[in-house]
Amino acid sequence: MINRESESAFVMTRQNDHAQFSEEVAKGLREEWFLDSKYRDDCLLAIREHDRSWIRMDDVPIWNDRSKAPFSFIDYPVLPKLAMYRMGLDETEEMSYYAALLCSMYYASFFQSDQQSLQESELAFYQSELARQKRLREKLNAPDEQVIARHFQLLQLCDNISLYVCMNREGIAKEEEHPWFKDGFNSLIDGQKFVAEWVSDHEIRITPQLFTQEWSAVLRNKHVPKQRIREVGIHEAYLESDWTELKVTFV
Q1: How far apart are CA 168 and CA 127, in angstroms?
Q2: Rg (the chain; Cα; Å)
Q3: End-to-end C-alpha distance for the chain, whole angstroms
Q4: How far is CA 218 from CA 37, 64, 117, 162, 166, in A?
Q5: Each residue of 64-98: pLDDT tens digit?
Q6: For a tag site, which of 27, 87, 220, 244 has the least CB within 10 Å?
Q7: How many CA atoms within 13 Å lie on the side-chain side of 245?
Q8: Cα–Cα distance list, 2 to 5, 42, 176 (Å)
Q9: Which residues, 6 or more positions from 58, have their beta carbon under 8 angstroms from its beta carbon?
Q10: CA distance 107 to 54
Q11: What tens digit of pLDDT does each residue of 154-191 get?
Q12: Cα gap 224→6, rounded to integer Å
């Protein structure tokens, strides 16, 4: 779950809804960003399914007593998360070897920077995903590594664009944004950093330009009242809250 807190509610976005929004963003990208059209559809599939592992976890939101907020993708307990990561990747592999390769690279990237500090379960997961990637590359007969790297970068970038929408209030001033995004996205394409900013309550500008024209996508989430959480608990409050849709146009 991706959570944003307001004064009276938690704005809660399921990871799979966030991933579907990411794919809608990716569909509007200029064709040349994909380098090679052969695997474009599989790249889009990977972007759509990159958080498939969270579907079951987000079915039952749980409360974090320490932070006094719903558990999110940032602080969710490690062991069940790793088990669901594997399950989601296995399911993606049944759809597309190439999409599974990109998604495995995505999850493995969480653990590759500081392996000395990893828990045993995290290291085992990381090593198993490296083995998965090796096996999938062999099945795919070694696609161009430059194309794989670019598609992985696009997955990370579209993921970040969607997170930007989920984690920042519509129309927020740049200086008030979540700290992850004030200086642009960490995901780079050929060393190029991209910066997003809200220019109205429904419009975002990304520089340098990613799209050939204005492009819109719709994000689903729920605004779950804090008062109702206190009365019936996070799960019931979430279930009874209505879905809302936010249409975002990239200008």
Answers
A1: 34
A2: 18
A3: 27
A4: 25, 29, 38, 10, 11
A5: 999 999 999 999 999 999 999 999 999 999 999 99
A6: 244
A7: 5
A8: 10, 25, 19
A9: 1, 14, 15, 16
A10: 12
A11: 999 999 999 999 999 999 999 999 999 999 998 888 88
A12: 10
The DSSP call for residue 243 is E
Q: Is the pTM of this model over 0.90?
A: yes
Run of H or E residues at 70: strand 69-70
Q: Indicate the Cα dihedral angle 222, 228, 231, 233, nearest 10°.
A: 10
Q: Is 171 helix (H, G, I), strand (E, B) or coil?
A: coil
Q: Cα–Cα distances in Å, from 29 out to 64, 153, 154?
A: 37, 13, 9
Q: How far apart are CA 150 and CA 124, in angstroms?
A: 27
- Distance CA(224)–CA(7), nearest Å, equals 11
In this structure, what token pair is assigned to residue 132?
């998965």
Q: Alpha helices of the chain — where are they, by DSSP H? A: 15-27, 40-49, 55-59, 78-95, 97-108, 120-139, 145-167, 226-232, 234-240
Tokens of 128: 């198993």
Report whether 22 contacts 162 (CB < 8 A). yes
- Are 35 and 147 within 8 A, CB to CB? yes
